[in-house]
Amino acid sequence: MSKQAERETWTEGPGPDAVFAKHLADGEFRIQRCAACARHVFYPRLACSHCGSVELDWVAPSGRATVYAVSVVSRSADKGGPYNVVLVDLAEGPRMMGRVDGTAHEAVRIGMPVTARVGKGAGGEPCVVFEADAAAGGGGSAR
What we know:
The chain is mainly beta. The chain has helices at 3-8, 16-25, and strands at 31-34, 40-41, 56-59, 64-73, 83-90, 95-98, 100-101, 113-120, 126-132.
């Protein structure tokens, strides 16, 4: 189906959240890019949050991001122990929530460069996770 035909049927078929989940299940991190205003969009939507256009295409982002905010959630070891929750700004513009893997929780800092990849959520489902980008100075001690 052509891009134009896809846009003409934008209210039919699976919703954007299901398409996002399908990409993750296939091991691909994708976000939407508006063909009308050229801006990237996340969380998946039917219409561009910047200009209202329905001309949204799925694209692979660079994966580069910067930690905007971080919090460590404390829980007992029998429930999995502590974990971090971060807000990151993707290089393409959108901000999203995730976690930083492979770095001690206390080493995750605001401004830390990170790289996205598809990992596993608490229930084993695919999700976007981040890792410190050592090449960009985002080191941190491995766990």
